[in-house]
Amino acid sequence: MKNSKSPKNNTASKAKKKFNSYSLVKRIIILIWVAFFAGILGIFGIFWAASNGLLGEIPNVRDLENPDIYVASEIISSDGVLLDRFEAERRTPVEYKELPPYLVDALLAKEDVRFFDHSGVDIKAAFRAISSVGESGGGSTITQQLAKQLYTKDPSSNKIKRGIQKLKEWVTSVQLEKLYTKEEIIAMYFNKFDFIYGAKGIESAAKVYFNKTTKDLNLDEAATLVSMFQNPVAYNPIKYPEVSKKQRNLVLNQMMKYNKISQAEGEAAKEEPLVTDRQDIMRHDDSHSAYFKSALRKEIKDWMVDYEKETGKSYNLEKDGLKIYVTLDSRLQALAESAVQKQLKVLQDQFFGEQRGRKLAPFYNVSAAKRESIFKQAMRRTDLYKKMKDEGKSEDEITKVFTTPRDSVQFFTWDGIKYKKGKTLMDSIEYHKHILQAGLMSMDPKDGTIKAWVGGIDWNYFKFDHVKQARRQVGSTFKPFVYATAINQLGLSPCYQVSNERIPGNWSPRNANGRYGGSQDLRTALAYSTNIVAARLIMQTGTQPVIQMARDLGVESPIINDNTIALGSADLSLYEMVGAMSAFANGGIYIKPQLILRIEDKQGKVIKDYTPKTREVVNEYVAYTMIDLMKGVVERGSGSRLRNRYNLTAEIAGKTGTTNENSDGWFMGLTPNLVTGVWVGAEDRFAHFESTATGQGANTALPIWAYYMQGVYKEGGKFGVTASDKFDKPKDVEKRWDCSSSLGFHQYDEQNDPGPLIEGSGSESVGENYEVPKETIEE
User: Fold this and answer.
1) Sign of CA pseudo-dihedral 735, 740, 743, 745
2) pLDDT at 134
3) Measured distance CA(152)–CA(236) in Å, rounded
4) Rounded to the nearest 10 degrees, what angle do helices 142-151 and 101-111 cross at?
5) Using alpha carbons only, what angle is made at residue 481 by residues 479 and 482, rounded to the nearest 5 degrees?
6) Top CATH class, 91-271
7) DSSP assignments along 504-571, one per residue
8) Alpha helices for 553-670 (secondary structure H)
9) pLDDT tens across 474-485, in order?
10) Does the pLDDT of residue 658 top 90, yes or no?
11) How large a percentage of the chain has pLDDT more than 90?
12) If both were cysteines, with which of 176, 486, 555, 626 could 550 make a disulfide (CB 3.0 to 4.6 Å apart)?
């Protein structure tokens, strides 16, 4: 029988099979290489896409070179002191050399032991994390975690988005490694982390948890803080001390494992009890100068808008590291803050004593319904109320939150914050309506530079600036504008006599003490703030020239065109009043109060140099006449306590002011080289002292000015201000006055008195008391 398959066919078949097998292997190898290169290209493409922002925004080089930690704009005082910073978050950065070795080693052992060997991404750790689905620890390096802290706001819960986010972190990490040394990255990581309880950054954390500086942390404290990087809430040593101790010991174990510490050191540290010493970190803007900072921010923001329009270049106040040199003197600022505190502590005790037991406290002349309405309006202005409203909560739901007793409610006191149990938020609102406020501004009248700015008593509780933001009724401190107008317009001398008889008609203002008759010269009338004389003067000049005088002196607030402004019915700011009064001390030249000297960029290049804005309002004779009249207020009028109580011997011109119902107390004090204004009152005008003896400006505001200037003079000329300074006096001014006759050069002519104006408002605004010239009185 013949074989059906010949040897020839078998050979061909085998060859064919061999060829097919070879082709299959070849194809497989090709596919593998294609897949490999495709993978490489794919990974490259993904990284390229991530690097170029195609997978979402990533930080640009400028952002990477300017992390928020270091680029806050600095506010530098005229005496070279760093006053504050404009920053996104308040931190105190430390350099790498200030980090104790234990702290750095703990971080490396816990988070990234190969940190000094990779370039931002640890491939080995990444694959380990992926293969174990996170069971063997995360794959993020310290650099990646820093990138996440700096540039990732809200981590996504979506796995795909989280994966893309991780890619972006890798790209950012590599870029960070190119820009910074390893030591700088570690320092940034410690400085950026939020340890909660207000501890932003390692320096704050050391203070909050252990009442130490970073460089003084010991081994177990360093391990405790590093253990918090995984979860600062769950592993918090204050909130969960036992859990925190276990985590601390895990960090110590890691340090022993990687030979960062010896076995003996580690075991000894693990035996140490977890001891914390909690400190409340200084709150943001804790200083009184925070009010100045708020006004400064607005002025700079306005300049930035104009600057961008002019140049096309923009700046970020929190990120561009500007150097802002301001006019404020840190030493004068401290004196001003101290003076406010010294007086307000006394006044506040007096006010609480007066209000104790009163059903309508702290208000006068209001109904119970009005009192309740004031409290409700205050509630509606709170951030909590606005937040709940935005969330769609009803008025009843919000009111319940404000009226439900709590475990702890904060109350401001001059002896520190008090926490009270069982009180409601409405109790807090009612309490804080009792708190008296104050404002102080001090400036050099020669160049307009503002030297001190106290806008309130505590920014954290009362974020309302009483220097520039607030407008309050000015009372008799407005009278110098009336007198200046009359002297400038009519050529009056200090000896000019004006009738003190009651003015008949629809508007018949009264003197505070109810005394009338005879006549007074201008010196006496201003010294004792006689309302009748001020009223007659504005009738002679007209209201519009007086308003224009105020405008020329820098007052921009609305002023009603009415005779009552002569007695101080206008609502003006302390900023305006100090600027206006300074013109009298500067020979009649108004200089706009100045906050900023210059602004430099982070390279030190001056990008804005401020020059004062000036204008002549009155001549030197009129200006000195006003100084002469206001010196009378201090020598024999309502400001005389500066001499007999506070023992100030310098040449001082001044004016007190008190408004209806004692709602506002003012004192404007002028010296040749420093003009300072002070206001005292409550947030609501219904809250005030009942007695004028207590609530008048001479008793509330003037002492602050006195304490401040006592401190200034004590320094013996350090600030360019001494008790021997004299106002510039024109050499022939007294000849121009010609006060040789008892009535003065310009005599009062009753026949030509214009009399009352029909359009008068009938206001009974109260000025200061008037007494006969031989008596020295207090307002």
Assistant:
1) negative
2) 41
3) 23
4) 90
5) 65
6) mainly alpha
7) PSS-----TT----SEEEHHHHHHTT-HHHHHHHHHHH-HHHHHHHHHHTT--S---SSGGGGGT--E
8) 574-585, 620-636, 641-644
9) 999 999 999 999
10) yes
11) 67
12) 555
Taking residues 159-179, report their average pLDDT: 69
Where helices occur in 319-454 by DSSP H, the ranges are 330-355, 368-380, 383-390, 395-403, 425-432
The pLDDT assigned to 602 comes to 87
Q: Which residue has the tokens 């972006």?
A: 168
**3-class secondary-structure state, position 56:** coil
259's CB contacts (< 8 A; 6+ apart) are none
What is the three-class DSSP state of 323?
A: strand
d(Cα 679, Cα 665) in Å, to the nearest integer?
6
**Of 490, 606, 604, nearest to 538 (Cα)?**
490
The answer to whether the beta carbons of residues 444 and 673 sit under 8 Å apart is: yes
Q: Structure pTM? A: 0.77
Q: For the stretch 497-533, what's the b/e string if a residue is b when 16 or more beta carbons lie within 10 angstroms of its beta carbon?
A: bbbbeebeeebebbbbeebeeebbbbbbbbbbbbbbb
Structure confidence at residue 779 as a pLDDT band (50, 70, 90)? very low
CB hemisphere CA count around 172 (13 angstroms): 31
Q: pLDDT value at position 228?
A: 95
Chain segment 437-459, per-residue pLDDT in tens: 999 999 999 999 999 999 999 98
**What's the CA gap between 635 and 639, in Å, rounded?**
7
Cα(85)–Cα(74) distance, integer angstroms: 4
**Side chain identity at residue 540, one-letter code:** Q
Q: What is the dihedral of CA 201, 205, 206, 208, to 10 degrees?
A: 140
Q: What would the pLDDT profile of 721-749 be if each residue is shown by its tens digit? A: 999 999 999 998 988 887 764 434 333 33
Are 566 and 545 in contact by the 8 Å Cβ rule? The answer is no
420 contacts: CB under 8 Å, gap ≥ 6? 408, 409, 411
pLDDT tens across 353-406, in order? 999 999 999 999 999 999 999 999 999 999 999 999 999 999 999 999 999 999
Which residue type does 768 have? Answer: E
**Strand pairing category for 323-326 and 73-76:** parallel
pLDDT at 778 over 50: no
pLDDT the model gives residue 291: 94
CB 668 within 8 A of CB 445: no
Could you tell me if 666 and 679 are in contact, meaning their C-beta atoms sit under 8 angstroms apart? Answer: yes
Buried/exposed 136-147: b ≥16 CB within 10 Å, e otherwise: eeebbbbbbbbb
Q: How confident is the model at residue 31 (pLDDT cuts 50, 70, 90)?
A: confident
Question: Residues in the chain, how many?
Answer: 779
Mapped onto helix, strand or coil, the DSSP state of residue 132 is coil
pLDDT of 743 reads 38
Instruction: Quote the CA–CA distance of 756 and 777 in Å, as a whole number.
Output: 29
Give the single-character DSSP code of 382: S
What digits encode the pLDDT tens for the residues 604-620? 999 999 999 999 999 99
Query: How many whole angstroms separate alpha carbon 608 and alpha carbon 592?
Result: 17
| CATH code, residues 437-752 | 3.40.710.10
pLDDT of residue 768: 38
Q: Where are the domains of the chain?
A: 9-54, 91-271, 437-752
Question: Distance between CA atoms of 178 and 381, rounded to whole angstroms?
Answer: 49
The residue to which tokens 């009552």 are assigned: 564
Please state, in angstroms and rounded to a whole number, the distance separating the CA atoms of residues 671 and 651.
Answer: 6
pLDDT of 36:
66
Angle between helices 479-490 and 543-552 (to 10 degrees): 110
Structure tokens at 517: 């008759």
